[in-house]
């Protein structure tokens, strides 16, 4: 599988423009409500929300919900996630920085029961050590230092592989007390839209593959890459249905080269990447291999860009 990209410079902002237009017009049945409901439902559900997709849709469309035994936090976090997606849509074209990332966390967690806890820092980095899937994360005192190189690279990501690598690093730092997965997936949405890469939603049926991919990244990158490519294929179908331009060129390493072939595996593309401070590129014949961001080295995975 190859990742999907917006095909031309003129069309790169077609999706962002449509999202903003539909939101302003209050469109129902378009790509904007589809993104809002599906991403909010799935991103919250894989983190433990008990809301159904239909209940999530009702909250989005009517601000009401029916059902017994609903948790207040599930409803609050659904509403908050809608606002966070709007924040992302508005922010495309602006840099990803510390203030923006903290603001996404504030939007997500404000009004929840967590926000009443003295030790839970809403909109700020964690104060108490945490872990993810039995993996140690950055100590609270190290978070700002570990996030600094990510912010340096955050606005120069041009390929799906770079976006996924950034996402894994963010999740392994786990900068916030809670909500790291949702903030991280919102940032991937931002990065895909900014780079002209078709975004994707990690659905419940992909949850296990997604978490396995996060765990294995650096040794076997294909788990996460293939999972996100599968999710991206679904979003391409949405774009086709709503008649929004989306190309199907490029590779996991990216799209667009000096020769216009849509492959990042050309010598020209490798040379361009080699000049960037945030990646290391090896040139082998007509293929380039992105290893990792320099500040936090990870074992190279051996995947050659341009081979699927």
TrEMBL record:
The species this protein belongs to is: Actinomyces graevenitzii F0530
**What SUPFAM superfamilies is this protein classified in?**
Fic-like
User: What PROSITE patterns is this protein classified in?
Assistant: FIDO
Q: Per its record, what are the GO molecular function terms?
A: ATP binding
Per its UniProt record, what InterPro entries does this chain match?
Fido (IPR003812), Fido-like_dom_sf (IPR036597), Fido_containing (IPR040198)
The root-end lineage is:
Bacteria, Bacillati, Actinomycetota, Actinomycetes, Actinomycetales
Q: Where is this site: Important for autoinhibition of adenylyltransferase activity?
A: 47
What keywords does the record list, in alphabetical order? ATP-binding, Nucleotide-binding
**Protein name, entry field:** Fic family protein
